[in-house]
Amino acid sequence: MFDCGEGVQRQIIKAKTGFHKKMKVFITHMHGDHLLGLPGLIQTMALLDRQRRLDVYGPLGVVDFLECIKKTVQFSLTFPIEIHEIEEQGKICEEDGYFVETIRSNHVIHSVAYAFVEKPRPGRFYPNKAKLLDVPEGPLWSKLQKGHQTELPNGRIVKPEDVSGPSRPGRKIVYTGDTRPFRQLTRFARGADLLVHDSTLDDTLTERAEDDGHSTPSQAAKNAKKAKAKRLVLTHISARYDDTSVLLEQAKKTFDNTVVAEDFMKIEIPLPEN
Ligand SMILES: [Zn+2]
Ligand SMILES: [Zn+2]
């Protein structure tokens, strides 16, 4: 979960994502609309007897915030919470299939952006090649399919590249959090399949956006274009816009593959082939 605003529990219930799953929360900065959902979320998880560890990542201050809640609000935790205060840019967590990176963004207070990066997937598996090399069907096939070399009963070593095509790239999602446009984003978001970008105010309010540490649709679109992102999602839209089509139009002038984020929006990101 990237940022955790108020109302998150209600949204989780509506979206039927559940409170017991493996989960990591990534906070971009210490403004209320990005983290005040955490105390309630944690308490509800405890009430529901969650057992699994919850990982929370965030900038300096996130430890104090959660410690203060634990000390002052009376409830007992049923699960461990591991809080990771981000001190440096770069890779902050790594799991089997993916890693998450951060970079400093440019808001009115210290803030970071996140990239969720899937690791490359093993190449396409060719059963015929495996048969030709006398690899018996079964566990050895799946070992090779997962990208591990394997030893045959006759002692011969078969490598994944002997029986499969080149590895295929994973997907990349970049979430800017609240930010003014900043130069380093181009490299950070390079080739992202999805760039979720601050677009609080429309282009006619560019100065105001600058003062408040936010971006406009054109600025978000320029960043998407420079980074060669495949798709752009405008988010953190000010409540002043009943109709968001004005923002969409402004962005589309520069970057056509754009949508405005909506509650419960689902976006399918196809796995890229080579
Ligand atoms: Zn903010
Ligand atoms: Zn905000």
Q: What are the bound molecules?
A: zinc ion
Give the ordered list of helices and strands.
HEHHEHEEEEHHEEHEHEHHEHE
Please give the share of residues in helix.
25-40%
Q: Radius of gyration, rounded? A: 22 Å
| Spatial separation of the terminal alpha carbons | 29 Å
Tell me the fraction of residues in β-strands, as a range: 15-25%
The count of helical stretches stands at 11
Structural class: alpha/beta
pLDDT < 50 runs, ≥5 residues: none
Query: Largest sheet at a glance?
Result: 7 strands, mixed
Tell me, rounded to a whole number, the average pLDDT: 95
Shape: globular
Strand order of the largest sheet: 4-5-6-9-10-11-12
Q: How many DSSP E strands?
A: 12
Structural description of this entry:
A 7-stranded mixed sheet has the order 4-5-6-9-10-11-12, covered by helices on one side. A 3-stranded parallel sheet has the order 1-2-3, covered by helices on one side. Strands 7-8 form a two-stranded antiparallel sheet. The mean pLDDT is 95. The chain is built from 11 helices and 12 strands. It is globular, with a radius of gyration of 22 Å. With 274 residues, the chain is of the alpha/beta class. It is 29% helix and 19% strand. A hairpin with a 5-residue loop joins strand 7 and strand 8 (157-158). One zinc ion is lined by residues 31, 33-34, 178, 236.
